[in-house]
Amino acid sequence: MNLIILGAPGSGKGTSATVLRETYSLAHISTGDLFRYNIKENTPLGIEAKSYMDKGALVPDDVTIRMVEDRLNNPDCEKGYILDGFPRNIAQAEALDKMLAAKGSKIDAVVYVKCDDDIIMDRVTTRRVCEKCGASFNVKYMPTKVEGICDVCGGNVVQRSDDNPETVAKRLETYRINTQPLIDFYNERGIIVEGNNNVDSKTCISSIEAGLKNLGL
Ligand code: AMP
């Protein structure tokens, strides 16, 4: 099963993606995580991406598309995957269609995680992530057992540099302008499955799983 997960930054799509990855044994491809890995390793790609990410802007399409194409060629994608954070605009969606058609493959469903902006702002500015394994925590709602230390791998848990109120507001605006139109793009194909994450991720995941079943997946 090949999935895309769409939703505003901080809507909880990362958490939903992690659950779906486990349930359906999928490779989890997060473009944000791939960029952050490159930044940490100080690669030329990371250096270029950082300047855009710090402003809450999108990294240029050509760089992003090439990175995803490389990742999709990895053998772990043969069992199915979930794309998290890609595509983020129509140009990327069209490029994805093209690269999948060339392989005789396609996207089976697009998971759309909904969440209100005020809830997102609260959750994202209190979010903390593990530098080593990427696990996500929250100082208010899901604190680590030992402050600053990851429960999963013992790595350092920090605030992402783009999780401050100004950059979050900018990222939400970028999302509305560039990414929201993808809902119509995929709706026309009848492959959208929705979950609402305003209350809790369990309810959200249940409706997503029911929606996938309805699509015969
Ligand atoms: P995320 O972790 O998905 O919130 O992504 C963090 C940042 O990485 C975004 O604000 C963008 O700057 C960049 N980014 C992630 N995915 C993409 C993409 N598909 N296209 C362009 N930029 C991206």
Quaternary class: single chain
Class by SSE composition: alpha/beta
Largest beta-sheet characterization: 5 strands, parallel
Distance between the termini: 7 Å
Number of helices: 9
Order of helices and strands: EHEHHHEHEHEEEHHEH
What is the CATH architecture descriptor of the domain at 2-26 and 79-116 and 166-214?
A: 3-Layer(aba) Sandwich
Would you report the number of β strands? Answer: 8
Over the alpha carbons, how many angstroms does the gyration radius reach?
17 Å
What ranges have pLDDT less than 50 throughout 5 or more consecutive residues? Answer: none
CATH class of the domain at 2-26 and 79-116 and 166-214, anyone? Alpha Beta
Overall 3D form: globular
Bound molecules: adenosine monophosphate
Whole-number mean pLDDT: 95
Q: What does this protein look like?
A:
Helices cover 47% and strands 15% of the residues. The chain has 217 residues and is an alpha/beta fold. It has a domain at 2-26 and 79-116 and 166-214: P-loop containing nucleotide triphosphate hydrolases (Rossmann fold), CATH 3.40.50.300. The strands form two sheets. The chain has a five-stranded parallel beta sheet, sandwiched between helices. A three-stranded antiparallel beta sheet has the order 6-5-7. Strand 5 and strand 6 form a beta hairpin. The model has no long low-confidence stretch (mean pLDDT 95). The protein binds adenosine monophosphate (AMP). Residues 9, 31-32, 35, 52-53, 56-59, 64, 85-86, 88, 92, 162, 171 line the site of adenosine monophosphate (AMP).
